[in-house]
Amino acid sequence: MAKINDESKVRGKASLDQLTHHFMKGKLEAMVGSSTKKLQLEGFNNLTKTLSFNIYDICYARTPQHRREYIEYIDEAYNAARLTGILEKIAQIIGAIILNTARQDYHPQGASATMLIAEASLDANVPGMAPRPTTCQDALVAHLDKSHITVHTYPESHPGNGIATFRADIDVATCGQISPLRALNFLLHSFDSDIVVIDYRIRGFTRDVEGRKHFIDHQISSVRDFIDPEIEKRYESMDINLTHENTYLSKMILKDLELDNYLFGAGEEDFTEKERKQIRRQLRREMEEIFFGRNSACA
């Protein structure tokens, strides 16, 4: 679907990135061992894993009134209370405990929620849980502010052509053994997603008891390896991965456009065949511009 640079790949096609991953696989396995063998670490796992999940929902609202109603609908459907519920479920899925929550609805539209989290096993100073003796208590407390989940929403509309969009940005940053990738399928089910952009990166290093540095503690070749195949088959997908930098980007765009699902305040029967074709073209162009990150020549 897109021109891929030398450091990227499309699933099923060989590229420099795949060859690099193949070359480094033996080295990686030597570093982290098999999936069933746990690393014996010296103190706390210092790896930071960050998942950035951006979804876009597109619709066509013919009149200014319909566009205002769409914004109001999105504002209510994804208000701060609902977003907080989504974040609570994410924390449950990835096995984290919630230390603090903040949420806010904005005027004229939009909402956000933020949670401070920690590993359930690292229960120092958490109300209702007995503290676990540790020799690195200060390190654990210092790491808590690195583990968080945030979500922000951005509803908007084109001033003249009837297109309205909704974007949700979710960031899950964890320190230690918690993996944010466990929440991927739940996130895809939680939002109507025409376009999905997923960034995953691992930073820092942790040491084993022999002093060797480990820059990654699990196997991964693509973020999409963690997505339910039933979900993935609905999308055209593209990967841009830098495996040797522990950076993974997956972009997904919905294959089939069922027009009735995109019309707000009206149905297909309210438009002529010529109008329906024009609306389909507008919707598809909007989706492709967002997917590729640039305006089309005919915009």
Automatic annotation (TrEMBL):
Its cofactor is pyruvate. Binds 1 pyruvoyl group covalently per subunit. It catalyses: S-adenosyl-L-methionine + H(+) = S-adenosyl 3-(methylsulfanyl)propylamine + CO2. SUPFAM superfamilies: S-adenosylmethionine decarboxylase (SSF56276). The modification Pyruvic acid (Ser) is found at S147. One of its GO terms (cellular component) is cytosol. The active site is at S147, H152, C175. Is synthesized initially as an inactive proenzyme. Formation of the active enzyme involves a self-maturation process in which the active site pyruvoyl group is generated from an internal serine residue via an autocatalytic post-translational modification. Two non-identical subunits are generated from the proenzyme in this reaction, and the pyruvate is formed at the N-terminus of the alpha chain, which is derived from the carboxyl end of the proenzyme. InterPro entries: AdoMetDC_fam_prok (IPR003826), S-AdoMet_deCO2ase_bac (IPR009165), S-AdoMet_deCO2ase_core (IPR016067). Pathway: Amine and polyamine biosynthesis; S-adenosylmethioninamine biosynthesis; S-adenosylmethioninamine from S-adenosyl-L-methionine: step 1/1. The keyword Transport does not apply. Keywords: Autocatalytic cleavage, Decarboxylase, Lyase, Polyamine biosynthesis, Pyruvate, S-adenosyl-L-methionine, Schiff base, Spermidine biosynthesis, Zymogen. It holds the Pfam family AdoMet_dc. One of its GO terms (molecular function) is adenosylmethionine decarboxylase activity. GO terms for biological process: spermidine biosynthetic process. Its EC number is 4.1.1.50. Catalyzes the decarboxylation of S-adenosylmethionine to S-adenosylmethioninamine (dcAdoMet), the propylamine donor required for the synthesis of the polyamines spermine and spermidine from the diamine putrescine. Belongs to the prokaryotic AdoMetDC family. Type 2 subfamily. Heterooctamer of four alpha and four beta chains arranged as a tetramer of alpha/beta heterodimers. This is S-adenosylmethionine decarboxylase proenzyme.
